[in-house]
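Q: Secreted trypsin-like serine protease, please. Structure only.
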Amino acid sequence: MAVLAATLGVVATAGVSAAAPPKNPGDPGALVVGGTPVPDGKYPFMATLQDARFGPTPYDRHNCGGTLVGPRVVLTAAHCVAFYTPETISNLSVIVGRTQLSMNQGEERKVRFAQVHPKYKTDGSYDIALLSLDLPITTIKPVQLVTPGTDALERPGRIVTGIGWGNTEAQTGFPGGGVVNYPDRLQEVDVPLISNDECAVSYPDTSDRDLCAGKSGKDTCQGDSGGPLFVSLPSRNTFIQIGVVSRGRGCAALGFPGVYAKLSHEEIGGWIQNPTTLASLEAAQ
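A: Structure for Secreted trypsin-like serine protease:
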C-alpha cells in the first residue's frame, strides 16, 4: 500500500470541488499484488464503491472496496468516504455481489449517507466508515464480523485473505512509485498476519487498533482500500472479516506489510455492531 498521507491533500480538494475528483481521491494505495482471479460468486458480500464522476463504466467508477454487513449497510474505510459532502454523496453508489466490474452482476444501490467513525483521524486511526443504502439488499448474505474483544483469529503467522480490484503491480516502499495495472476481475491473495511488534519496525505509529499482514510479493494495493481482510472456514463455508484495508508504504514491498483497521478492537468493532449505530443506518427513509 502507498502512504496514506501522500493522498490527503487530494482528498481535501476533491471533497469541495464541483468537478470530478481524481481517480481514487481518498485511496492510500491498497490493491492485490501476487494474487489470483476470483471465480464468479465466491465472495458475494464484496462491494465496489462507485463514483459517477470517474467515468461512464463500473470499471472507471470503482474507487474503493467494501463489504455488506447488513441488508442496508456497507462497511468500508473512512478515508474512502470522509471527503464526501451532503452535496457530493449523491455521486456515490455501491454494487454488491459483482466479481467482474464490466459484467452485469450483483445488486446496485445508491448511498444515502456515510457515517465515519467518530474518532477517525487522517493519520489512519479508526479508519472505518459505514454506508447507509437507499434500499435493502435481501438476496445476498452479509459477511460475518469477528467478535469485538477477542483475538482467537489473530495469531501471528495465520494465513488470511484479502480481496479487491486494486493495482496488481508491486510498488516500492519509497517515493517514485511504479507501473499500475487495475484488473477488471476481483483478485484474492493469501497473506500471513504479522505481530504488532514486528509491524512497528516499519510503522512506529501502529497500535492495538491495527492488524498487519503481508509478505514480499503479496499484499493489497491502490484500489483495495476499504475491502476486507478475512479468515476462511471452508468446513463451514463461512468467512469471518477481521480487518479493513487501510494503509501502508508501497505494495508488496520487502519490509512494509499492509496495515488494516482491526475489527476485534472494542472501540472499532463495538462501534460497528452497536445497536444504535446499526439502527440509524438501517432505518427506512
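A: Brief note, in case it's useful. Residues 8-16 form the longest helix (9 residues).
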